[in-house]
Design goal:
Length: 133
């Protein structure tokens, strides 16, 4: 029931923009510049330490975002309002709504992918035509 309700969840534009900015600001403060020379200037010269650090940051990011007020079920997003007091329902709802929002593709992203794919396809066809005759 929570998954079904959360799939209908739609964040309003202002909250969505604020969520994306906050999430980007959080990840940017932990971004490691690969162009820095290894040694003292780079905080994690060991690739495994860097990988573990990134996993820790990702886990913290998911926890922070997941528990934010953006993904709470409300009376308008829940068919049975008695479920709003059920902690399991709320947790599943937040998880599905968060994952749906983070993995959401914008119209611009889809348009770029379609145009890029078309250019590659046209280029491959032109290459085949030029080299067959």
């Amino acid at each position: 029931m929570a998954k079904k309700d959360a799939k209908q969840f739609q964040m309003n534009d202002n909250d969505h923009e604020k969520f994306r900015r906050d999430r980007k600001a959080f990840t940017d403060q932990y971004r490691i510049d690969p162009m820095l020379p290894t040694g003292l200037n780079q905080p994690f010269p060991n690739p495994m330490a860097d990988l573990n650090h990134r996993k820790d940051i990702k886990a913290k990011l998911n926890k922070i975002d997941y528990y934010s007020g953006y993904f709470e079920p409300t009376k308008s997003t829940t068919k049975d309002t008695a479920l709003l007091k059920d902690s399991v329902y709320v947790k599943v709802f937040r998880d599905v709504a968060y994952r749906r929002t983070v993995n959401e593709r914008t119209v611009t992203t889809v348009a770029i992918a379609v145009v890029g794919g078309a250019i590659v396809l046209i280029g491959a066809i032109a290459f085949l035509i030029a080299h067959t005759g």
